[in-house]
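We store amino acids, tokens; thus:
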Amino acid sequence: MNEVEAKELAPNLVTCTTVMNCKEVGRTDVALSLLKEMNKKGCDANVVTYSTLISGFCDEGCLDKGKECFEEMLEKGIAPNVITYTCLLNNLCQIGKLREASELLSAMMERGIKPDVVLYTSMIDKLCKGGEATKAMELFSLMLQKGEDPSTVTYNVLINGLCKQGLVLDAIKLSKIMVKEGKKPSLVTFNTLMKGLCDKEKVNEAVELFELMFNGKTNVEPDVRTFNLLIQGLCEEDRLDEALEIYHKMDSYTIGNVVTFNALIGGYLKVGNIQKGMELWKRMLNLGLSPSSFTYSTLINGLCKLQMVSIAKGVFSKMTALLRISPRLFDCNALLVSLCKEGSTEQARKLFEGMKDLNCEPDAISYNIMINATLRAGDFKSARELLKEMIQRGLSPDSHTYSTFIYWFSKLGDLDEAKRVFEKMVSCGFKPNKFIYNSLLKGFYSDGEAEDIINLLHQMAKEGVVLDLELKATILLCLCHSVEDFDVKALPIFSKEVSKRKDISCSELLAELYKSYPELKLQAI
């Protein structure tokens, strides 16, 4: 615009509106300044100019400024058009202001501008994407009241929104209304319902819907996504024979893809059927399908859970070294856990240190796994170094980190360190769990720290710790072997809520022990 004025050319309305709409501007506040300049130079804005500006404000999420421009154009007697209203209505729906959108819609119709099915569908879509499926249903009802006939796309958008929010029964009802109104559900409709049913664990209903499609009663044939959705749902429920049957039915329609085999392989490994899982793996390769990173991830995690670590390592090596596929963090952590469990701490350390080279930076879980393995080996120094490195990388210790240190410090007899870590944990805002209290009590008992036991029991009672069987057993152990060291009156009482029956004192716990094991010849206090 400056260049135009420098050449003493008077910018006209078209020039100014074009500049406003130019993507290079990118800032609606600049466009607003331009509008003011236009007014000063006697270049009156029209509906296109204002609509362009309102659209820009709405795109930037500045609805209030867009509404101000709208009010200004009304004051100037400039009649808004369908584009003007569409910008505002879509934005109002996007932020869930359905009542205001409804009022604006009525004002629009009073001006003789009738919203069409495209506008309604767009508004419904915005509400659904904003997680407002219930309000989208209200708008749908308003659409029907205004006499506008929804399209198949309208129904699909709303059904998808309802399913995503878990309102599958409402989605099914809507699909029935759709059929009743003479609209033919599309493949998108059926796949959306199929996914919604499986996500809500209504797999039986998904099977019924599939059978209707498969037997030609819907005039819509299933595609590979339809089959995959049902296979995944059945595998999630360990209904593998049925999943395999659905897979065999695919032959008359389509061939399975990587997603199909990922679900089946994962399902069989999950139930421990390694033979069938490997058969499917080989069949997948024989069909010429290239395994994805998720396929390898499924294999690695399944094999690790079956404690077949050597095979899992082989798959991991093939994926990373031969195929140059970057592993997921989840895969690395699964393999780390398995290696540490079988005592291959050195191999775990090498994998841990090599994760960066695999474009897979260790997270807090990775560090927790290695800290636990290092402490198990009694290497306190290396464990502290791992903790220091973890913090230097910007990873904050979590409750599991503290819990691991407290457990091993208590178990290995370094109670001063256990107490120091415990206090640090509490000061950082973490609430100790039963496992931590149990670890400390056992440590204090082993070291004969009666006072520490009493103090910890009081803290547990104050925090409302639930006395489960394991904690009761530990407390009884402490009382049984150190009863002469305790002042009974100093022991706390755990409330009814946390003992899950009646108020219970530590002395009553001792009485429980005496009742169960009279041969100990303890005096019930």
Observations:
- The radius of gyration is 34 Å.
- The mean pLDDT is 83.
